Amino acid sequence: MGAELYNKIRRILFNTANDPQKGFSVAYEWLEQTYKSQLGPKGYAGILAELKFYEEYRKEFSLTVAGDMGEHADFSGLYGSEATRFDVTTNLSYKDFKEYEPFMGEGIKYKIAFFDADNFSLIDVLELGFEKCECGGYMIPFVLLLGENYNSKGWSQWTNDQLIMNICSNGCDFNELDRHVHHFLVSPSEHISDLEEIMTLEEIENERMKYCLDNYKYFRREYRDDLMAVAEQGYKITGRKGEGFWTFGFHFVNKAVSDMMPEDVECGRLE
Ligand SMILES: [Zn+2]
User: Fold this and answer.
1) pTM of the model as a whole
2) Ligand 1: distance of its center to the CA of 106 in Å?
C-alpha cells in the first residue's frame, strides 16, 4: 500500500469523524468494513490508533489533524500552554530521534502518543535520543574544546584535547565520555584571539560561531552523531576580587535542545 492511498483513506476517515452527521462510529465502521483490507495490517493499526487518539484527546489537547504534505506529525495542538505536535505510533521501535531532529526548534514540542494494547502513553521525543538523568532531565552529549596543551616545563605541545561529554539538562550532573587529541584544533577563544586588530566585534562573533559549527559537523560525523552542542570552558567571575568558578560556555547548541541546555554549571577546571 502506497503513502498516497494511506493518506487518502486517512483524510476520508477524519473528515467522517469530524462530520457531525456521521462522527466516530461511522468512521470506525468504514474503517472495518471498507478500508481494512486495502490498508493491510500495519496501515490499519496505524489509522485505528490515530482515530482513537483523536477521539480521546482532541478536546484536552485542542488537536487539529495535520495534513499529509510536509508536516512531520499526525496532529498539532497544545500541551499545557505550549504548541506541540503529536505523532501517533503503535510501535516505538520504528521511531528514531534523528527523524525528528530537523523539525525541532524553539517553540515546537514533539510528543509521541504510543498506543500499546488499549492505552496511550505520551512520550517526549527527547526520550528516543537521550538517556534520562535520575532527576528526570536528559543527558545531552556535547563536545568540549580545550585550550592548547603544555608540558610540565610550560612548553607548548602543539596539540589540543577535545572531550566528549554529556550534561544533565537540569545541570545536576556531567560526565567525560571520551577524549580526543588533535593538532591545530584549537579552542574557540584561541581561534579568534588574533582577530581583534582586523575585525569588528560582530565579525569576530560570526567567525567564532562558524568555527564552532564546522567543528560540530566534524565531531558529529567522525565520533558521535548525537552530539548536540559545542562548548569551551570559561571562568565566571562572581566577586570583586576575581572570585568565581569554572563553567561550560555553550557557543553552539543544536536547536532541537536549545531551550534546555543548563547555564552556569560549576565544573572545575578540566584539562
Ligand atoms: Zn539531572
Assistant:
1) 0.85
2) 21
